[in-house]
Amino acid sequence: MNPVVVKPSAWLTGGIRTEQVNHLTLFKFTEELSNRLQELLDKKKADNLNPEETAELEAISELDTIFSYINAIIVSQS
Fold first, then answer.
1. How much is the pTM?
2. Is 3 within the bounds of a domain?
3. Number of domains, the chain
4. What distance in Å separates the CA atoms of residue 65 and residue 4, rounded to the nearest whole number?
5. Does 1 map to a domain?
6. Residue 44 lies in a domain
7. Beta-bridge partners for 28
8. I want to staple 57 with a disulfide (CB 3.0 to 4.6 A). Which of 7, 40, 49, 64 is the partner?
9. Has residue 4 been placed in a domain?
C-alpha cells in the first residue's frame, strides 16, 4: 500500500486569501479551508480519521504553521 501524501501547495489557488489587518496584509485560510480544518480536527478528536484525512490534516496543519510564521514576521517588521 502506498502512503497517502497531500502537499500544502494543493491549496495555493483555492484555500488561501490575504486580509488587510490595520495596515498589514496577512495570509489567511479561506472559509472553506478553515471549515475543512475544523472538520478534520473534530474527526481526529473522535479518533475517526482515515489515512487520506490524516494526510490532509497534516498538510493543512503544515500550511497553518507556515502562515503563522510568515504573518509573525510581517507583524514584527511593521
1. 0.87
2. no
3. 1
4. 20
5. no
6. yes
7. 17
8. 40
9. no
